[in-house]
Design goal:
Blueprint lengths: L14 H22 L4 H29 L4 H23 L5 H34 L1
């Protein structure tokens, strides 16, 4: 069973964002498999880097939509994105410093953050953006 199971409750109604969220979920599940299989540090590092890089790409996509359509809560949402990226950098630095036990902490943090972010903050922009994107 996957660590993070996607279901329709996570949909924000914007196809590209849903697809990006699904990619992040798959990356988290891949990292979980690698951690549980005691994979090499090199493989875990590559997965960690890919996850961090793709998260940044996804955030930029969302933020571009906020700017394009004038989402009123964009600054608070962007701050959450910045906070996550800073936490990921902090965890990655700790992992690179030799804390081999950090893998599970990273997974727990990412799953919790992503679920809460999608079901909370991301759902808040759904109606606003979907309406404006259909008109445009």
């Amino acid at each position: 069973m996957a660590l993070f199971e996607w279901d329709d409750s996570f949909s924000v109604g914007i196809d590209m964002i849903d697809k990006q969220h699904m990619i992040l979920v798959r990356a988290i599940n891949l990292m979980d498999m690698a951690v549980n299989a005691n994979s090499s540090d090199k493989l875990l590092g590559a997965i960690f880097d890919t996850l961090a890089d793709y998260t940044d790409v996804h955030f930029k996509y969302e933020e571009d939509l906020f700017d394009t359509y004038g989402y009123p809560d964009s600054e608070a949402h962007k701050q959450q994105h910045d906070d996550l990226l800073n936490k990921v950098i902090e965890l990655k630095t700790e992992w690179e410093a030799g804390n081999a036990e950090i893998g599970q902490e990273v997974l727990d943090f990412l799953v919790d953050w992503l679920k809460n972010h999608i079901l909370g903050t991301d759902q808040a922009y759904t109606e606003f953006l979907v309406e404006r994107m259909q008109v445009a």
